[in-house]
Structures
1.
Amino acid sequence: MSISSDVLRDVVLIAVLVIAVVVLITLVLTRRRLLFRSRPTENLDGASEAPRAAVVVHGKKVDDHDARRRQIEVLSGRLGWRAPVWLETTIEDPGRGQTRKAVADGASVVIAFGGDGTTRVVAGSLAGTNVPMGLLPAGTGNLLARNLGVPPNRLESSLHIALTGRNRTIDIGHVEMADAPGAPPREESFLVMSGLGFDAEVMATTAPELKKKIGWGAYVIAGAGRLRGRRTPVTMRVDDGPVQQRKIRAVVVGNVGMLQGGIQLMPGALPDDGWLDVVVVSPRGMTGWLPVVGAVLTRRNHATVEHFRCRTIEIHADKPMFAQLDGDPAGKAQSLKAWVDPLALIVRVPG
């Protein structure tokens, strides 16, 4: 029995309509799946699964906490993040316990909101955790932030980097300092620079009120009054090399090389090269500082400015000297041993 052309036409038309409906339904379902995946999922209690940061904030470095906190919450929301956990440091705990709590609670990034000292403490607790550290630099020096390209005292820009920037893995320096021969050493970490002598003395004797008024210029004023001074005999051992003797005014061990104003104290220092850079300064009297300044500014060698690169260094002085860690006074020490922990910390930097 033959099928009429009208019946055949109707069958073809129905088949085409069925195929069109199937294609349309498939497109709609696919679009819905894509839209669903692009939105933050929710728990049974309605909590969003958007990432969440923790902010470890230095109580005395940040003014108007409530306003800054609200600003950070608003900016975080605009970037698709939940309101961050706010953890303030205390005299008893400058950030170690707060950082460990943030990691244990599952923070996607832990942000150090303060100066280099707060950053150093937070970094020491984040090392090896695979949780990145963000920077909201609000101190006087902010040297780590400057060396990594994070703008100091610009909250919106630095928060944007902390939440959406590129991860960069950097080294951490460690030091053991002892107050006297045979005394039990105290171990600390540093990200910028540590050292003994003139620079540490300046940092220890700079008036906090002056730092608040004129910033890092207060260090210049304090340093000008301490240019006179005798050199201290020390012995040094760089890596597995021989013991060397020097008479010094200062020794600085650095993980990065740039100071305020873009001055390169250690031009070859990189935060992720697996090395420590060392500068030994040995001027005689006040006039001896002139070639030191010239050597630093012109990046040329001079007998009073020596540069080393090492994995470890040990320094023993004839008498206790002022010590510093990332620009913070660290009391006095008669011996210092420093070593590098390569690529131990993840930091958010500009993308």
2.
Amino acid sequence: MLLNIEIKGVQFSNKGAELMLEAILQQLDVHLGEYHLTLSPGRNLPYVKRAKLGAWQKLSFRRGKLDLTGILAKLPTKIRNFLKRYGIVTEADVDVILNASGFAYGDQWPMADLRNTAKEIKRFKALGKPYIILPQALGPFQREELKEFAEVLINDTALTFARDDTSFAECEKLNKSNKLFQSPDFTALLEVQQFNTTEQQSVCLIPNNKVVSKFNHANAEQQKNAYFDFWIGTANFFIDNGFFVKVLNHEGKEDRDICNAILEAVDNEQIALIDGLNSTEIKALIGSCDAVVSSRFHGCVSALCQGVPCLATSWSHKYEMLYGEYGLSENVIDFGLERQELTNKLNHFLNDLTNQASVCLLHAEQVKEQNKKMWQQVVAIIKS
């Protein structure tokens, strides 16, 4: 009987989350060949796109503290078999859960997310089914009310992978098991078809609405003007140096609004909006560019792992940790730099592209080897 594997924390609107889904599917295809895939319905996981992947639709219900998912799993077998005719399964039909939430558990996120995940982990542990936390940013867990659920996340899973040094250190404070490991973002392994390139040098600019979202930073909205000035100054710099500027919408309407504002302000024939690509097309596009400036984490990953020099602006520790892995810590910059400071930084970056590409590729090979080791551990658990 084929294993039924549920993948959680992924979606189609956020292209980083979609990229993680594609990366997981590619590895499951390699290591397992045949299996059943399950995805839960969601606003950013519409039925049509789930159906194209041949995914079972999971029957679940969560509203605040009310979580009926475990109860629905206790439906009689006859009813569950009937639901399968319509492509619907319950938690009882799932053999393995792979959680690829990216960055969803810690002090800055709603407690309900971690609480519901902890309950799910306990249910799977009681049934002897593996629940695996794939590499992601975790913590901090300073809020007392979070620690109980964080301990479950770290100790009651089959495997938990923290993505970086800071995340691992936060998890280690609560670790009482031998199931906690560290491994970098796993999308580096995802192979994509090469994108058509032009003779003219190009740079890809990838803004992120979260950088100036009050949800993530109390004073973020006051920084909006500085953030727009950063992108306008960066776009003009590369245009002045003979580059074609591709402003990429990496996620939804809010990012698109920022992209359009940049294009309107720069108003040059050497700049264009890139929109409507899926995650693998985005990675291929990034791989075709000569340089990238990104506020999106997976925009940075997709550049670095393909040897494309990339500057980043940061809104969480995961950026600094990523660039430490790739030996380019100085490439995480402050978008609030004065114009001359920004110009100096961009000039240094531009003059160092060849060396940076070599550094990226060297570290990318190391990251990919760690990715392979992580998947060996995951597959061993799935097959056990």
3.
Amino acid sequence: MSYCELGTCPYDKTHRIMIFRMPKHIVKCAKNYRGPPLQTCKYNAAHRVLDMEEHLKECDYYLRSIDDQAVQIALSTRIPPVQENGHDVDTPL
């Protein structure tokens, strides 16, 4: 059997599940869950947490999306350089 990363079920901490199987497991395990309601992270639906604010401080998916958004903003506000002949560098002649 090949190496697969394991994750911990948010509904039962004793469940160690292969990450690629986590979405299906969460659906099944949520049906039997009797604890306080968990919120679903909008950056990764497999993340179910009690305190979303605390979770977002360390959620890799959220942190990556912030970086991606910053890059997109930077690219959208970028002014293309102009050559001496008056044509944009990015625009083909």
4.
Amino acid sequence: MVTTQQSSTKQDILEYLVKHAQATAVELAAALDISPQAIRRHLKDLEVEDLIVYSSVQAGMGRPQHVYKLSSKGRDRLRREAADSYGEFAVSLLDTVAQTVGHDQVSSILRKQWERKAQEYRDRLGNGSLHQRVETLVELRKAEGYMAEYHPIDSNESESGDRFILMEHNCAISNLAESFPSICGHELEMFAAVLPDCTVERTHWIINGEHRCGYLVQARKVRS
């Protein structure tokens, strides 16, 4: 039981660092409701496993603070966990298809796959409010391993309608995206197709070295 709890806490730490990019031991203790002493023990174990790294930052006149973030090994581990259902077989299969019919044909195949996925999402989202549909979409993406979340954006311009930031802190198909970057373009098109009454813009991109993928979802203005 103790081993299971420790493993769960370490996983919680890794997932927190995915979402927030970095944190101190005190911040992690507060967020996970665990004593700083216990958090530091878990952090030490994660350091030994090379899953996290830290830098020392001077805060005021006191001792320097350690600021922790995921190492490349730590991020790769989470990506592998999220991508278990796809695996290396999918990459190998697409490589074989590309060698056989060419990359243009592969891109066409991937587009059709996203169009089918978009239809599946639309059927699940229904015709509720934009807020309800975004919330349901995030739940569907979370179930697929994307560690998704969303945040409403307040607007002083009522005519702008509802706006949301949709974040995905983990890419469940990162290995595919690295070999076939066009997948990311199709994903943006898919979100736009799922929410046809909205504009969808990319704000963050893991492939560009950022720690998350992000999208701005905004209801289209209704012309009077």
